[in-house]
Design goal:
Layout: E1 5-9, E2 17-19, H1 35-52, H2 59-79, E3 84-89, E4 94-100
Parallel strand pairs: 1-3
Antiparallel strand pairs: 1-2, 3-4
């Protein structure tokens, strides 16, 4: 299997996971990840997008959601080893975490 390059993010109208190579969002069912992780990503994405819609954004909730997203990133990296998975915070407009499984 080819190595996957993925980004976990809370981007509006996304799936929570997109190609890091600019190929768009990836359907979670196409990743062959556990049903539990698919559910976790979907629930996190809904909470993330709800918070993004608020003005002003609650900084404490945003930080918690980013930490939860990083946790999902680590789980995804583990399930899809040797995938490269990174995390992008839409709140902060920057990448917060990057890992290559097995390093």
């Amino acid at each position: 299997m080819d190595k996957m390059y993925l980004t976990v993010d809370g981007q509006r109208f996304g799936t929570g996971v997109r190609s890091s190579l600019g190929e768009g969002h990836v359907e979670l069912v196409d990743l062959n990840i556990s049903p539990n992780l698919m559910k976790e990503i979907s629930l996190w994405l809904a909470r993330y997008q709800d918070e993004v819609d608020k003005h002003p954004i609650d900084a404490v909730k945003a930080e918690r959601l980013d930490l939860d997203g990083i946790g999902l990133c680590k789980k995804l990296s583990s399930e899809l080893s040797p995938a490269k998975v990174e995390y992008y915070s839409d709140f902060k407009g920057t990448k917060l975490w990057f890992s290559e499984a097995g390093q």
